[in-house]
Design goal:
Among the domains are: 107 residues, Alpha-Beta Complex (Conserved hypothetical protein from pyrococcus furiosus pfu- 392566-001, ParB domain); 82 residues, no CATH class; 145 residues, no CATH class. 48% of the residues lie in helices and 9% in strands. The chain is built from 24 helices and twelve strands. A hairpin with a 2-residue loop joins β3 and β4. The longest helix is centred in the middle third of the chain and has 21 residues. It is flat, with a radius of gyration of 34 Å. About 1% of the residues have low confidence.
């Protein structure tokens, strides 16, 4: 920035000043001081053609104009001290203007909305705006929520014809509800405050919200005296039909080529200011918003602002070859849990295939591998619950039994804290060799198989290849447990599991239910609580070959399965 003294006639109000369209301000409080002492705080300006536009300092400017008008002498007002901003910095200009006004007097909420929304459009996050102006993020979000209002309602609010409580509730209304409210307002019959809350959220399921043909509904419909609107009386039947059509909507968008379609939980509101418009070909999603009133709205081509900003940073670093990252259906902790259980089952199954272990050992000896030093695989879990689950698993207990047999063949004590066979410096290699010399080929192969199983790396394509080769049945080693379901978070994947265990009709009927409710449905099938018990169900994640539930895949686990399939064709 540059400090300069600029003639008054070269200054004008910038359109970036948040009060640029307002009437001339009252300057009676500051004009005497300026007449006596002059301008003590420079105006913030930027170049505009032959002159300069004022970003911050509007009241000081009007004071100087008033002084010039009232001065009867030929003496001109002295040039005005100004700080000149860099050209093109609209975001900084908006910030400067709003900061000055917020510090002096709270501007009206609509002015804040207009300024905040411009900053967000120019790349600022909600957190950035909140930090800049020293307000909470929730205050910024409340201001931005005004963007969900149709222009006619915003205009009424700006004219102070709508109170704050009513406007807050209207930001939660759908566009259809807002238009109906506006029609009532023109007749002076609109609901406000608590009446509006009841009007919006009384749970009435209107006929106009139905995606399905009305003849499919087998229940009572109530209409008003004028027949202008009807209501479904049986919410269970309504949602059963509505959810099926929501599922069809999702499947239609997927066929159109959208990588991901997010069905939001009933009552959750889609906030546009937390998302950025993105092309389908660039990873844009479709969000399906489901209101408690039954209304369904699609938002096509969005990603979160966090994802958008991350992509922009990659582009700025000229790393343009990086494809948009699709969020896998499994969290890293869930991938870790599943990978360790699958690895555990495969390595204990190796004892039934010593000939494979022999060839695997030779391959490791020739080519090396991550664990071929030789060290035991650490089976490192990133959660305490996963570690406990692995330790108590059938496969782990069987593995420990095999370890004890090997220790006995090697004449090693199994009760002195020795945990691994490989990389055990407590014993001389020559003594181990002499012991092996006394054993049969069958026993040596058993020890060799144990060493191979103990050193095999987890979470690789090798686990997939061997699991398919051994035809591992995970039911022999693992059954569904709470720790597993606690780690599954993706709603589409959970809904697919519901379909897998209970059928498509059950899954479609609960597509908008919370993840917790859908997990409870799976548990009910497994335990036979209120539903026909399913005894032999195994999630796709635990089967060989591995299979994810959605197009997003399951991170490393999907990559490993794909490579295994390609290598074994």
């Amino acid at each position: 920035m540059e400090l300069a003294h600029i003639p008054l006639d070269k200054l004008s109000i910038s359109t970036q000043n948040m009060r640029h369209g307002a009437k001339a301000p009252d300057v009676s409080d500051i004009m005497p001081s300026i007449q006596k002492l002059g301008i003590q705080q420079p105006l913030l300006v930027r170049k505009n053609g032959d002159g300069f536009e004022i970003v911050a300092g509007r009241r000081r400017y009007f004071s100087l104009m008033e002084i010039a008008r009232n001065d009867k002498s030929d003496k001109k007002v002295e040039d005005v001290p100004c700080t000149i901003m860099a050209a093109g910095d609209d975001a900084a200009a908006l910030e400067a203007s709003l900061i000055e006004n917020v510090a002096r007097v709270d501007p009206d909420l609509m002015s804040r909305f207009e300024t905040f929304s411009k900053l967000v459009e120019q790349g600022k996050t909600v957190a950035d705006v909140a930090e800049t102006f020293g307000v909470s993020e929730i205050m910024v979000k409340r201001s931005l929520a005004l963007g969900d209002l149709i222009p006619a309602i915003r205009k009424l609010f700006q004219a102070e014809e709508i109170d704050m409580e009513t406007i807050r509730l209207l930001t939660l209304a759908s566009v259809t509800q807002q238009k109906k409210w506006l029609k009532l307002a023109k007749k002076n019959d609109e609901p406000r405050t608590w009446q509006l809350k009841q009007w919006l959220f009384d749970g009435e399921l209107k006929l106009s919200a139905a995606l399905f043909p009305l003849e499919d509904y087998r229940g009572q419909i109530v209409t008003d005296l004028f027949g202008e609107e009807g209501y479904f009386t049986n919410s269970k039947k309504f949602w059963g039909l509505q959810n099926r059509y929501i599922v069809e909507m999702r499947e239609k968008r997927i066929k159109e080529g959208w990588d991901e379609v997010v069905i939001m939980e009933t009552g959750d509101q889609f906030c546009e200011w937390e998302h950025a418009k993105t092309l389908k070909t660039s990873g844009g999603r479709v969000y399906i918003e489901v209101r408690k009133s039954g209304e369904v709205t699609e938002y096509k081509g969005y990603i979160t602002t966090e994802e958008f900003n991350r992509r922009e940073r990659r582009l700025q670093n000229k790393d343009k070859n990086i494809e948009p990252v699709s969020k896998p259906e499994l969290t890293k902790s869930a991938q870790n849990y599943i990978a360790l259980h699958r690895h555990n089952a495969v390595r204990v199954s190796m004892f039934g295939h010593p000939n494979v272990a022999l060839r695997l050992m030779v391959a490791h000896a020739i080519c090396g591998a991550f664990h071929w030093k030789v060290n035991p695989n650490p089976q490192r879990a990133d959660k305490k619950e996963t570690s406990q689950s692995i330790y108590e698993s059938i496969a782990q207990k069987e593995f420990f039994k095999e370890r004890d047999k090997v220790f006995k063949l090697l004449n090693w004590p199994s009760d002195e804290g020795i945990e691994t066979c490989t990389n055990n410096y407590s014993f001389e290699a020559i003594n181990v060799f002499l012991t092996l010399q006394t054993l049969s080929d069958e026993d040596v192969l058993r020890i060799m198989t144990f060493v191979m199983a103990e050193t095999m790396e987890s979470n690789t394509s090798m686990t997939e290849i061997l699991g398919n080769e051994f035809k591992v049945n995970m039911w022999d080693f693992w059954q569904p447990e709470d720790n597993f379901f606690d780690l599954i978070r993706d709603k589409n994947a959970i809904n697919a599991m519901v379909a897998d265990i209970g059928g498509k009709e059950v899954a479609d009927g609960n597509v908008t239910s919370t993840a917790k409710i859908q997990k409870k449905i799976i548990d009910d099938y497994l335990t036979g609580t209120g539903r026909e018990r399913v005894l032999d169900w195994m999630p796709n994640y635990m089967k060989f070959p591995f299979e994810a539930y959605t197009k997003s895949g399951a991170g490393n686990l999907s990559d490993n399965a794909k490579l295994a399939e390609e290598l074994t064709k």
